[in-house]
Amino acid sequence: MIDTAGIRCMQLRGGSSKGAYFLAADLPADPAERDDLLLRVLGSPDPRQIDGIGGGHPLTSKVAVVSPSPDGQADVDYLFLQVVPDRAVVTDAQTCGNLLAGVGPFAVERGLVSATDGTTAVRIRLVNPSVSYATADVPTPGGRVRYDGDTLMAGTPFPAAAIPIAFFGNGSPLFPTGRLVDAFAGARVSCVDGGLPVVLVRAADLGIAGDEEPTALEANDAVRISVEAIRRAAGAAMGLGDVAGKTVPKVSIVSAPRRDGTVTTRTFIPHRVHTAIGVLGAVSVAAGISVPGTVAALVDVPPGTVHIEHPTGTLAVDIDLDGTGVDTRLSRSAVVRTARKLFDGLVWPRTGKATE
């Protein structure tokens, strides 16, 4: 872990994001020391992250920390850390379903899970913000991770090998405010947590169509101000406290489908607009539009697969719910993602402290 010797790191494109993957043993055990190191590795605080390996955007400034799991239900633990590009901030307030796509391959590559000839099931315990479980089926022909394939995932330009991922409900309420509809900052919303806290709001209630380009929404001051006011009020009602400096909840704007999907989305994450949609954010949207009475129940959604349209394509989410109304719980969900190893080697952080 000495800076002059470099730190072992693998960078993968996981889903529609990109991040640095580390073994927990290769990072400082103290969270403050670890976070300072990661700021220097990725190049924060700097909007361009020019002095690190971050990409200057929340979707490319992410970290996965993986370790053997002490839990008999899992092979590895996965801690996600969001490194803010332009501020000296590292947060574990949420998990990331896109980087999760790379956790299985990384665990096999690092020898935490023994590969089989064919497909290797990697059982993963997601440890933030609360414990949940997932299983990733990693293609391992000949006992080696295969990254190349013909699955073209929306939000990425090139195909790769499919990695099916199944999530399992932890019994927590799907609607954390105890209501299907709330009113915050003059808008009717539905607060959903299917693995990631999300606030659903209709595009029409924000005075927009709902299919605008992400850059157009980011440039719309009136929408940004309204979204942030809704997010802060909803965050407190969802039990998240003061979310002014947090990355959750996300706000997902919903409207009618344009491309034969189930719903169209534009998601603030929380201040930039996602060029696709986060995996667990999509699960929350799918759950929210599947329960009658929410603001997002735009159509009669049959059980099974929900097709979430986003700025660069569509994400299919298989979802199983138990119960009705505010007593609805998430039983299981599943998506297909892809991942690709970009580099594996050593990374050298800049010297000093991140805030110096």
Automatic annotation (TrEMBL):
Any Pfam family the entry gives: PrpF
Keyword Isomerase listed: yes
- Family statement drawn from the similarity comment of this UniProt entry: Belongs to the PrpF family.
The major lineage groups are:
Bacteria, Bacillati, Actinomycetota, Actinomycetes, Micromonosporales
Signal peptide residue numbers? none
Keyword Metal-binding among record annotations = no
Which molecular function term from Gene Ontology is one that the record holds?
isomerase activity
Organism listed in the record = Virgisporangium aliadipatigenens
Q: Which PANTHER family match?
A: ACONITATE ISOMERASE-RELATED, ISOMERASE YBHH-RELATED
List the Gene3D superfamilies hit by this protein, alphabetically: Diaminopimelate Epimerase, Chain A, domain 1
- InterPro entries in alphabetical order: PrpF-like
Q: Which UniProt keywords apply?
A: Isomerase
SUPFAM superfamilies on file: Diaminopimelate epimerase-like
Put simply, this protein is called FldA protein
